[in-house]
Amino acid sequence: MLLSGRIPMAVANALVTVVSTVLATELHRRISFRSERRGWRVHLQSGATVAVSYAFTTGALLCLFAVRPEPSPLVAQTVYLSASALAGVGRFVLLRVVVFGNRGRSGHGRASHDDALDKSSVAMAV
């Protein structure tokens, strides 16, 4: 909302999306998933989830402006925050399963008891 009117909506959304997801990815890596995975592959996979989140939130706003050309700031913010929340849940699941999914594997290729609990808690959160 602070950037509206100063730069185009899509650019403002891109800026907010990139900054928030870089911070979220690092926090997920360190705290949520306690992963040691690093490198370009992790960044590229995480970047793909950012691109999907950006497309989803921008699409939601473009749909809003197509239906209601001049929505109130409250309506615009509600649509954006709702789309961001859905995108955030989807991104968390992708990070957990795809990007940081190899955490806690035993030497026999089976998930430990803690991993099974983690996956069920993610399923319950969705």
What does this protein look like?
With 126 residues, this protein is mostly helical. It is 73% helix and 0% strand. The protein is built from four helices and no strands. It has helices at 9-32, 40-67, 73-99, 113-125. The chain is elongated, with a radius of gyration of 17 Å. Mean pLDDT is 78; it is low at 103-113.
What integer value in Å does the Rg equal? 17 Å
Name the beta content range. under 5%
Distance between the termini: 28 Å
Average pLDDT reading? 78
Share of residues in helices: over 70%
Sheet/helix structural class: mainly alpha
Largest sheet: none
Low-confidence stretches: 103-113
Overall, the morphology is elongated
SSE pattern? HHHH
Number of helices: 4
What is the number of strand segments? 0
Provide key terms for this protein:
126 residues, mainly alpha, elongated
List the helices and strands and how they pair.
Blueprint: H1 9-32, H2 40-67, H3 73-99, H4 113-125
Helix pairs in contact: 1-2, 2-3, 3-4
Task: Summarize this structure briefly.
The protein has 126 residues and is an all-alpha fold. The chain has four helices and no strands. The protein is elongated, with a radius of gyration of 17 Å.
